[in-house]
UniProtKB/TrEMBL annotation:
<keyword id="KW-1015">Disulfide bond</keyword>
<dbReference type="InterPro" id="IPR036242">
    <property type="entry name" value="Agglutinin_dom_sf"/>
</dbReference>
<comment type="similarity">
    <text>Belongs to the aerolysin family.</text>
</comment>
<protein>
    <recommendedName>
        <fullName>Agglutinin domain-containing protein</fullName>
    </recommendedName>
</protein>
<dbReference type="InterPro" id="IPR008998">
    <property type="entry name" value="Agglutinin"/>
</dbReference>
<feature type="domain" description="Agglutinin">
    <location>
        <begin position="74"/>
        <end position="209"/>
    </location>
</feature>
<dbReference type="Pfam" id="PF01117">
    <property type="entry name" value="Aerolysin"/>
</dbReference>
<dbReference type="InterPro" id="IPR055267">
    <property type="entry name" value="Aerolysin-like_C"/>
</dbReference>
<dbReference type="InterPro" id="IPR053237">
    <property type="entry name" value="Natterin_C"/>
</dbReference>
<dbReference type="Pfam" id="PF07468">
    <property type="entry name" value="Agglutinin"/>
</dbReference>
């Protein structure tokens, strides 16, 4: 039997590289790290997560593996158009009797620019299908042709890794591990080619949804899963009332203050890019230490943006001031933030005129508001 040396993993990396080393001899009669089958050595990769070990299937050769952190990975929208560094959309075009993809369209409503994304949730890769050609993107030899009818995810030439950056993405073809770029060569002009090892200027792709209009409705908040956090007290300037007589006085004191609220509707899995939606949804707020849904928001909304409002308000306090006494009134309030997951229905009208409706379960509302408004009084003789 043989034993493999354990390989330490670091928490700091999102993409961990794991290498198998050659086995060492051991005198143990059993080993859960190796398996003998005839004369062939078969290694198993063991990963410890949360106190549990999980064995990954046997490996016939010694080489590198990648542990992919999918916890922060977002999924591209289903129907998209890609724009290159020349500010032109990538469109389907037959060149030399082949289904090429060329950065040459100026109109997102052009039916040849629409592509459908097929994500693989297990590993984060995607396959991309040209709606015009009705074929999946494929590496051949380094050009990207939209001519594959393979419905599986086994052909690495049809698989792409999406690298998300703030204003653009990179698309790495898994067939040759190179990034796709706009390339002019071999009598082709500005066509898509998996040619570079890094995300160069020509490999920066902007993604736009091929959607003319969007409506989001049927929002159902999961209040039992709401999370209140970042609670902090706020204080306002104190008010005083002095009674220098021998009689009891009642006086109404009015506090003027400003209250700030913030609200954001977003999604934790699906990206929504560059499309303003007509949103109908309630607004969760914190009230008396719990979360409840208040008035409804019904307006145009850029998905994922924060709406912050500041309102001038007044609060009145009826102070009873004893004779020869000064009363000081202090107002305090709690400010807190809240996250509430929700499901919703999304109805899109595509640039082709097609209407598609989705039931989504990845919504997340984030809000901030004030609550627990209280007055505190102190008295002192004069």
């Amino acid at each position: 039997m043989h034993a493999f040396e354990p390989v330490p993993l670091t928490d700091g990396d999102n993409n961990l590289s794991i290498r198998f080393f050659r086995p060492q001899q051991t005198t143990s009669s059993e080993s859960d790290m190796t398996k003998e089958k005839g004369t062939t050595e078969e290694a198993y990769l063991h990963l410890g997560t949360g106190g549990h070990e999980k064995a990954v299937d046997q490996v016939k050769s010694l080489h590198d593996f990648s542990a992919i952190d999918l916890s922060k990975q977002l999924v591209l929208p289903k129907y998209v158009a890609f724009k290159g560094d020349n500010d032109m959309y990538l469109r389907a075009r037959i060149i030399q009797k082949r289904n090429y993809l060329e950065f040459s369209s100026s109109d997102i409503a052009d039916s040849t620019v629409v592509n459908t994304i097929f994500p693989n949730y297990a590993n984060g890769n995607v396959r991309i299908k040209s709606n015009h050609f009705n074929g999946f993107w494929r590496l051949s030899p380094n050009w990207i042709w939209a001519d594959s009818a393979d419905s599986s995810s086994r052909d690495r030439d049809t698989l792409f890794r999406v690298v998300m950056l703030p204003d653009y993405i990179g698309l790495q073809n898994l067939g040759n591990s190179r990034y796709c770029k706009r390339l002019t060569a071999d009598r082709k002009t500005s066509c898509l080619n998996a040619a570079v090892d890094t995300i160069t200027l020509e490999a920066r792709l902007r993604v736009e949804e091929a959607v003319l209009s969007r409506e989001i409705y049927g929002v159902e908040f999961k209040l039992s899963e709401a999370r209140i956090y970042d609670e902090k007290p706020l204080t306002y300037p104190s008010m005083t009332s002095t009674n220098d007589t021998n009689e009891l006085h009642a006086k109404t004191l009015t506090l003027k203050y400003e209250e700030t609220q913030a609200k954001t509707w977003s999604s934790t899995v699906s990206l929504k890019i560059g499309v303003t939606a007509k949103l109908r949804a309630g607004i969760p707020v914190i009230a008396e230490g719990k979360v409840e849904v208040s008035t409804e928001f019904n307006s145009e909304y850029e998905w994922g943006s924060s709406i912050q409002t500041t309102a001038s308000k007044e609060a009145s306090y009826q102070a009873v001031v004893p004779p020869m006494t000064k009363v000081t009134i202090r107002a305090a309030v709690t400010q807190g933030s809240v996250d509430v997951p929700f499901s919703y229905t999304q109805r899109d009208i595509l640039t082709t005129g097609e209407v598609v409706t989705y039931k989504m379960d990845d919504g997340l509302f984030t809000g901030m508001n004030n609550y627990n408004f209280q007055f505190e009084t102190t008295q002192e003789p004069i």
